[in-house]
Amino acid sequence: MNGKLQEGPYLFAVDDDEATLKLLEKLAEELGFAFEGFSRLTDLQARLGWGTPDVLVIDGLLPDGNGVEFLREFPRRNILKRPKILFHSAFFRKYHDCEELKRLGADRIVSKPCRVETMEEALVELLGSHVWSPDEFEEPVAQAA
Predict the structure, then answer these.
(1) Which terminal residue of the chain has fewer beta carbons within 10 Å of its beta carbon, N or C?
(2) Do residues 60 and 88 lie in contact, with contact meaning Cβ atoms separated by under 8 Å?
(3) Model confidence at 90, in pLDDT bands (50, 70, 90)?
(4) DSSP classification of residue 60
(5) What is the pLDDT of residue 22?
(6) CA 117 to CA 102: how far, in whole Å?
(7) pTM for this one?
(8) What is the mean pLDDT of residues 63-84?
(9) Please, are residues 33 and 5 in contact by the beta-carbon 8 Å criterion?
(10) Which residues of 66-92 are buried (b: 16+ CB within 10 A; e: fewer)?
(11) SS3 41
């Protein structure tokens, strides 16, 4: 997508694993959010020049850098709003690492590998949304005349 973000909620994700990006895209779509995925930090950084998403999912280790360094530099970016940040990595699992990630601005930390439901719950929490299942809809009650 070129240009500014369209109206509505947006989720950006940077991960070098294509399967993870496809999963995040599917979950974002189910939640009613637009999605853009990137396999490199440089691509994400270039895209952030056009607009900031509502939620940003960052992998820990990428071919051109790491998510921790990105978080350290992120506050220096000239952005209008700060997105919710989900840090997603197979590394950085220790308590000390998690505390550092939170200090750097990660709102949620999800370790890889994870269940699809775990990622969905984290996104729902960050997006402030709810995924409706078909059994949650009720038939309208007929009103008496």
Answers:
(1) C
(2) yes
(3) confident
(4) S
(5) 96
(6) 22
(7) 0.80
(8) 85
(9) no
(10) bbbebbeebeeeeeeeebbbbbbbeeb
(11) helix
